[in-house]
Amino acid sequence: MSIPKSVTKAHATGNDFIAYLDSDGRFEPTADEVRQLCDRHFGIGADGLLRLTKPQYVADLSEAQVAACDDGDAEWFMDYRNADGSLAEMCGNGTRAIALFAQRCGVASTQVGEPFRLGTRTGVKTLRPLGDVAPYGRDVFRVDMGSWRRGDLDAFTVTIPGTPGAARGTFVDMGNPHVVCVIEDAMSTLPRVEDLDLVTKPEVSPVLESDQNAEFVRVDEIDAAAGAGEATMRVNERGCGETLSCGTGLCATAITLRAKTGVDHWDITVRGGTVRVDVTDETVALTGSATLVADVTLI
């Protein structure tokens, strides 16, 4: 097996991962190994695998991507794989989980506000530990998720096989593709957020070549004077199915809600907890907790 015998189970608002340190590039996983470990019945069980390594040890990176990590002062890289073994461009919740894991490994500072620069397939992300912050939980990190791109509002039609109704969706590129549906409004005939069956993969029209993550969101409250809002979201992730949280999906949701309401700051509740998303014209930041659950010795 090309995975070390000792790994760590972690999660960030319920989006759970298997993490390990590979400081010298000896442990690049195969797709089969990722699938086996992430299987919830025959393995440890997780939404994905996080390999904390150096950029030069990631086989699929180009020379330009490695150089960008060097230019961005990112010594460490998050090599993320979905539970089905496929490579993933980015995982917002994964950055928080791997930052906490990096602290434990002694390669990231635990000092509040001290930046940790992490290479990803979508560029260098800067994380800052904030400590314990209500209502977001313990070991909270703020992640500068970088730039974003949004398509036309409500340009897609989204259905869920076996579920009556449809919703309009908005495309958001967070380095990985998302289609965000605001439901429980006049443009949606889908059931309530809580009643959706997201075991079945949603269908999006027109079809995206890259496939997509699909988010379903309800606006719960808006304080226009404060420029803040609250919402509830569920998500079906490509390569995983429904997860309890999706960091890039939370960002895509806030970007879509901002376009519809003009509100920049959102507390969004997912099945795994509550996070904060702050959107500007050019960037988006994600704030939420991370947890290390257990160390596991593979047999």
TrEMBL record:
PROSITE patterns: DAP_EPIMERASE (PS01326). It comes from the Bacteria. GO terms for molecular function: diaminopimelate epimerase activity. NCBIfam families: DapF (TIGR00652). Its EC number is 5.1.1.7. It is found in: Cytoplasm. GO terms for cellular component: cytosol. PANTHER family: DIAMINOPIMELATE EPIMERASE, DIAMINOPIMELATE EPIMERASE, CHLOROPLASTIC. It catalyses: (2S,6S)-2,6-diaminopimelate = meso-2,6-diaminopimelate. It is an enzyme of class 5 (isomerase). Keywords: Amino-acid biosynthesis, Cytoplasm, Isomerase, Lysine biosynthesis. The active site is at residues 91, 246. One of its GO terms (biological process) is lysine biosynthetic process via diaminopimelate. Substrate binds at residues 15, 82, 92-93, 176, 213, 237-238, 247-248. It comes from Bifidobacterium bifidum (strain PRL2010). Catalyzes the stereoinversion of LL-2,6-diaminopimelate (L,L-DAP) to meso-diaminopimelate (meso-DAP), a precursor of L-lysine and an essential component of the bacterial peptidoglycan. Belongs to the diaminopimelate epimerase family. This is Diaminopimelate epimerase.
